[in-house]
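Here is the promised in-class demo. Please do not try to memorize the tokens; focus on the logic of going from shape to residues.
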């Protein structure tokens, strides 16, 4: 029973924090499947999508939206920020220390509740699909995140 309360609290936090990207500094990028894809914390932060040498800004890492062969960066993957036709693009969420802690925790695993919260949130999307409402171009976001 004790495990239900923290999960419920994080679920509520996700819904309230996902409503808009707000200021870019510290914003989180999360895939539609709940996978953490980085932050917007400048060019030197290890978690930032603007750090080309970090895990989430690298063109070689599978968890990067800039890996053109990966699930989140390929122009053919339905989960990708660069698929011009996807409706499952990653989300950009407002900066929140509790969300960062949750998504970067070693034992974090996306749950159906988290995925449902993302879908219901109305958060902006990171996508090359110009037909998605409030979509932010991934390349423009990378530049903006270099100095948020």
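The designed amino acids, position by position:
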């Amino acid at each position: 029973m004790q495990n239900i309360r923290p999960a419920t609290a994080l679920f509520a936090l996700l819904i309230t924090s996902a409503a808009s990207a707000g200021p870019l500094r510290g914003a989180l990028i999360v895939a539609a499947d709940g996978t953490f894809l980085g932050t917007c914390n400048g060019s030197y932060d290890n978690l930032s999508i603007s750090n080309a040498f970090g895990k989430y800004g690298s063109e070689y890492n599978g968890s990067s939206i800039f890996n053109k062969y990966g699930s989140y960066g390929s122009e053919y993957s339905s989960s990708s920020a660069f698929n011009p036709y996807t409706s499952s693009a990653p989300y950009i969420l407002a900066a929140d220390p509790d969300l960062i802690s949750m998504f970067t925790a070693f034992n974090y695993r996306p749950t159906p509740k988290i995925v449902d919260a993302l879908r219901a949130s109305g958060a902006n999307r990171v996508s090359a699909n110009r037909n998605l409402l409030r979509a932010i171009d991934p390349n423009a976001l990378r530049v903006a995140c270099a100095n948020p």
